[in-house]
């Protein structure tokens, strides 16, 4: 397997597994809004059921609804008698892991080149 193929395989693995992180959103809204089938909050849930970012964007426009970025419901305080909370999550690019992966890939390439170069120098008569 060539060095280029190994490099591409490492990049693919980094992209598929190690370069994303879970981002949480605590969406707090009045209890009445959560059960109102025709209300703004419920309409956002119906329209954007599998699309976290779109749902959060929609819910931010609903009256008395607030979104707390990068927090779960259990991490924030709210009056649970009056308000309900739902935790949403989405995947986002983890720039730190991506940067570290790129640095490691560069180091692996340098080491491989040094090994190949020293091996070819030793095998010449």
Keywords:
single chain; 125 residues; alpha+beta; three-stranded antiparallel sheet; 3 strands; rod-shaped
Distance between the termini: 26 Å
**Stretches with pLDDT under 50, minimum 5 residues:** none
Overall body shape: rod-shaped
Q: Let me know the number of strands.
A: 3
H-E string: HEHHHEEH
- Please bin the fraction of helical residues: 40-55%
- How many domains in all? 2
Strand order of the biggest β-sheet: 2-1-3
Mean pLDDT over all positions? 82
Structural class call reads alpha+beta
The fraction of residues in strands falls at 15-25%
Question: How many helix segments?
Answer: 5
Q: How would you characterize the overall build of this protein?
A:
The chain is an alpha+beta fold and about 120 residues long. It folds into two domains: about 1-20 and about 95-125; about 20-95, no CATH class. It is built from five helices and three strands. The radius of gyration is 24 Å and the shape is rod-shaped. The mean pLDDT is about 80.
Could you give the topology of this structure?
Blueprint: H1 3-18, E1 20-30, H2 31-35, H3 40-47, H4 52-59, E2 66-69, E3 83-93, H5 95-123
Antiparallel strand pairs: 1-2, 1-3
């Amino acid at each position: 397997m060539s060095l280029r193929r190994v490099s591409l395989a490492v990049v693919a693995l980094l992209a598929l597994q190690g370069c994303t992180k879970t981002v949480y959103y605590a969406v707090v809204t009045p209890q009445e809004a959560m059960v109102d089938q025709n209300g703004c909050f419920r309409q956002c849930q119906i329209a954007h059921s599998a699309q976290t970012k779109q749902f959060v964007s929609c819910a931010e426009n609903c009256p008395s609804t607030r979104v707390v970025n990068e927090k779960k419901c259990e991490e924030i305080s709210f009056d649970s008698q009056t308000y309900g909370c739902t935790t949403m999550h989405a995947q986002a690019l983890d720039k730190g892991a991506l940067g570290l992966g790129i640095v490691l890939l560069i180091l692996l390439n340098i080491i491989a080149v040094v090994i190949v170069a020293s091996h070819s120098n030793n095998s010449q008569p």
